[in-house]
Design a protein that fits this description.
Helices cover 45% and strands 19% of the residues. By secondary structure, the protein is an alpha/beta fold. It is globular, with a radius of gyration of 15 Å.
């Protein structure tokens, strides 16, 4: 049975950037490890992780939004799921996955992170690996631990790793892939 990993990231990342290449590597490594990649289906790191997954021989699902009908989905998708609302999109990305990875992103990525983390925290979705990829997440989580009322057990729902290789290794360990 396929294991689906949702990857959250920015549409604002250019093709020649370091963030694009890291997302592309992540997609390839996920595919080579046997995972299906699911993401928001558009440009930036969503495109990069999709492209990498296809280059690695994998399957890619894009969860797009009818509100963005004027935007083309990226060309690396095998399947496009068009959702009627942003909340339906978030639900699909979160509930239909076996694990999640958050890359560096903007407001949308932070929303995906917060909603997924909250759903895991309250038990609204089954427990699953949630990996934050990149050194910047250490600093962000440090600020959150000092400036919010988030409990240690809630931080324990997340795992911060610094490389795509570490992310896939963690998923393999946690999901037995």
């Amino acid at each position: 049975m396929e294991k689906v990993i949702s990857v959250f990231g920015s549409s604002q990342v250019g093709e020649r950037s370091r963030d694009y290449e890291e997302a592309r590597l992540l997609g390839r490594l996920l595919a080579e490890a046997g995972f299906t990649v699911m993401n928001g289906g558009y440009a930036g790191t969503m495109e990069a992780v999709s492209r990498g997954a296809k280059e690695g021989g994998g399957r890619v699902i894009g969860v797009t939004l009818q509100l963005f009908a004027h935007l083309a989905a990226n060309r690396w998708l095998d399947e496009e799921i068009k959702t009627p609302t942003y909340l339906a999109r978030l639900e699909q990305l979160t509930a239909a996955s076996d694990g999640c990875i958050a890359l560096k992103g903007g407001v949308g990525t932070l929303t995906e992170l917060s909603v997924t983390w909250s759903l895991l925290q309250i038990g609204a979705v089954p427990r699953k690996p949630f990996i934050l990829l990149g050194q910047h997440w250490h600093r962000i989580m440090g600020v959150l631990s000092q400036e919010t009322f988030i409990r240690p057990q809630d931080f324990a729902l997340l795992q911060v790793v610094e490389t795509a290789e570490e992310a896939v290794e963690a998923l393999n360990s946690l999901l037995g892939a």
